[in-house]
Amino acid sequence: xxxxxxxxxxxxxxxxxxxxxxxxxxxxxxxxxxxxxxxxxxxxxxxxxxxxxxxxxxxxxxxxxxxxxxxxxxxxxxxxxxxxxxxxxxxxxxxxxxxxxxxxxxxxxxxxxxxxxxxxxxxxxxxxxxxxxxxxxxxxxxxxxxxxxxxxxxxxxxxxxxxxxxxxxxxxxxxxxxxxxxxxxxxxxxxxxxxxxxxxxxxxxxxxxxxxxxxxxxxxxxxxxxxxxxxxxxxxxxxxxxxxxxxxxxxxxxxxxxxxxxxxxxxxxxxxxx
Length: 274
Prior knowledge:
Blueprint: H1 4-18, E1 25-28, H2 36-39, E2 45-51, E3 54-59, E4 63-68, E5 74-78, E6 90-95, E7 100-104, E8 108-113, H3 137-145, H4 154-157, H5 169-179, H6 192-211, H7 219-227, H8 232-236, E9 255-259, E10 262-266, H9 268-271
Antiparallel strand pairs: 1-6, 2-3, 3-4, 4-8, 5-7, 6-7, 9-10
InterPro entries: FPG_cat, FPG_N, H2TH_FPG, Ribosomal_uS13-like_H2TH, Znf_DNA_glyclase/AP_lyase, Znf_FPG/IleRS
Keywords: DNA damage, DNA repair, DNA-binding, Endonuclease, Glycosidase, Hydrolase, Lyase, Metal-binding, Multifunctional enzyme, Nuclease, Zinc, Zinc-finger
Family: Belongs to the FPG family.
């Protein structure tokens, strides 16, 4: 499933294609949404935003389309009105005079009134979205120090969208590595200095992944690896999916283990004290 940086990049390219433009034609696959095909025609798309792993499309008549890609949903664009060549099931199509945006394979699509957005069952449970412009460092460190979360295991907590939204499996392992913390503890076991390191890593790597197309590795390391023709996973990540390979920073062998049905990756030298 795409993580926060990927969802925000999707929201950005949808904004570039749709924002400020009147809708010339609209298609919904689901019968419950068919009435909006005519109701929204001629209305401008005001903005497109990410919230956690969902996307909100704001229309000029106060309606907001909520969509969640889940595992298989995907947005695609066309400049000539021709539908992309794909075997995916079309769920939504938004057309204007310049572009067409197509949402495939997603099943969670709803139309809301603007006043209903904050109370949506998914959105109201979200923790701070690191990439949202209104989110501050204080918001993020406040989650790491809140009493509510102290008895939770860090590896589980980082995937909880009610803790910090937008983090998924690759960011989880990368954040723990960048912060230099042992991934096996409950949150209360980490000293304040490590909680601060985790908060900073959460922001730093989410922003880096957003800006660099999913790369969380240090740019200087990436440049060196490119000169060596290293494979893409080695270039992209510190530890994620690099089991058995050498840590970019200390040379130790990266390890993996399964927790909660999903794998984490870590450096036993950089992260675990003897």
